[in-house]
Amino acid sequence: MTIFDSTPLQASYRQLGEPFYSDQLPTPVADPELIRVNPVLAEQLNLSADELQSAESLQIFAGNVVPNSSTPIATAYAAHQFGGWNPQLGDGRAILLGEVIGKDGQRYDIQLKGSGQTPYSRRGDGRSALGPVLREYIVSEAMAALGIPTTRALAAVTTGEQVVRESLLPGGILTRVASSHIRIGTFQFFSSREDVDAVKALADYVINRHYPQALADQSSDEPYSALLSCVVDAQARLVAHWMSVGFIHGVMNTDNMLVCGETVDYGPCAFMDTYHPQKVFSSIDTNGRYAYSNQPDIAQWNLSWLAQALLPLMGDVESEAISKAQAALGRFAKTFTETSQGLISKKLGFSKPSEQVGQLFGELLQLMAQHECDYTLTFRVIGDQLAPEDAARIPADIYTLPEVFADWIKKWHNLLASSNIEKTAAHSLMIKSNPAYIPRNHQIEAAIQQATRSGDFGLFHQLVEVLANPFEYRDENKAFSVAPKPEEEVTKTFCGT
Ligand code: AMP
Ligand code: MG
Predict the structure, then answer these.
(1) CA of 377 to the centre of ligand 2 (A)
(2) What is the pTM (predicted TM-score) of this model?
(3) How many whole angstroms from 94 Cα to the centroid of ligand 1?
């Protein structure tokens, strides 16, 4: 039995017809083995958690067997990559097996990543090395546990084959779940070909699948500007969440931004250890285009391309269409600021934003940058100052606030007091808003090295399990909350494609 026997796969995207996709079977692999499956996610997707580990399901995750109900496809898209236009991309190493309806009534894509060549592979081998598969599993599941919209990992397998990169590396395949894999670049693919009918079909599909409120909320002749507003809001909220946990996506090309507003593509991403607003990790981002603090601006630039694609649907009078698009794009700043302020306030123990809290937060960031402090642990130990006697807290041998923070801490206590906020209330808010554990690059690298060199997945499993409860500090998991020593610090990340 396989996980799809009791829940047949659906193919609503396929109904859009060609050239939205090409039919494409996965290419079988030699000798697959299961690394990890995600029973909690399976349950949420109405899939049989019991069958996840079956030998038959393994063959599906490896691409060796296609479920009876599946008509696998690779989808087409285009993109601006690092600002340069690329009219022809598409799933070069991914195959959409189909869709399922989750317990929440929403539709989810089930995709194999690393499952062989497709018509969109260009010169690529269609495969994925094991390292990036483990990295995506760890970080995407950590994001989900942090409450940040993201694609998920249902299963990871080894292929028993090697892939040729700079050296020979073991291969892997990830089974990825997303609310959909429709990208800004999917719209660009059709708009650049001036295929307005296809843009309209795609927009209608996205409204129906993700944003039915675009039909209901506004007058019915404005569904496409309403759609744009919905995507703008979703991405503004997403980037605000990234910023609040010190996440740097690293490759915010327009094909890596999903219109559903979930984080996708964990290639060169990183959570900052020491705080600096201009931090960049990706080895290929030489100009710092996707630096930490550039992320809101880049998201808006990307969204302007979605607006451009939707423009012909917003009315016959161009000037009117442009003002509608501009109004929708203009929402980004407001939604981003409101979301950020809400998140920032909670990180400091305030349930509501205020100008004083915003200022206090800015001053804290400046201190952190000046003194090269660990972003995550700084917030966490500030919260620990309000912890009741018996509460778990970050041990002093892991991290203590530098002396120079004393004045700031005094101001913060004063603002809590003058805002009539109880210490216990502030503390419980802060430990829910500031993770003790984040997927730190040096730990991800160690887990990948252990798996790649010796086939030992122990550290990988441990990391996934600890990161499933990022807000609850436990002494037995102390090692995972520690910031890297200077010699351990990973300062560069690689796409790994
Ligand atoms: P990414 O850098 O992962 O966002 O990928 C950019 C584009 O390159 C997408 O169209 C991918 O499908 C494609 N791609 C990346 N790696 C490979 C590969 N190994 N084989 C074929 N296509 C690939
Ligand atoms: Mg990508």
Answers:
(1) 30
(2) 0.98
(3) 9
